[in-house]
What does this fold into?
Amino acid sequence: MRILKHSLTSVSGLLVIILYCTFTFTAWALYPDNFAPWSHYLSRLGNFNYAPLGAYFYNWGCILTGIALVPFFISRKSWYTEKRVFKGLLIGGQMVGVCAAIALILIGVFSEDQGSPHMTASSIFFILNFIVLILTNIALMFHNRFIKVIGLYGIIVTILSLPLEVFLGGPIIEWYTVFGSLIYVGLLSYNTNILEETDELRDTSNHQ
It folds into this structure.
């Protein structure tokens, strides 16, 4: 599916990056005390007890980013192939991705100061994000038009997240996972746009 000259995946993917980064860094700028990736979890930006004004930006950023993630995940039909196993994995990744998007929305709805509901939504989001990266990479790595360097990057982000959490831990790992995933969103959006542009040119040539 295309919007003007760009795929829906690329447009929504770019929107995901812009929304999350804009609202997050605005909240960071409004944080009243010192704030750093190695000492604070991202969700602290959405805590009304610590950031009465900035929390609005961070939480709305999570909600809007989650909404933008839905079309990003569901618009990958152009990557489907005749190989049922890989198509099934990709569809599974899309379904899990939509669930992850809903979990991100709930992170914004239930801010950190609300305790258990926020922790539950946050835990579910990171688990689902991990699963999405695995399913998507396995499905696409065998696609002949997938840029393998992008897949390699996704594999590295996924594989390193677990040992880093076990042996290093702390807020910095959350930042690594979130922004590492955002970069993957951008790379996959770019590759999808190339794929659909090529298909469109091929269809135009065949009808001439």
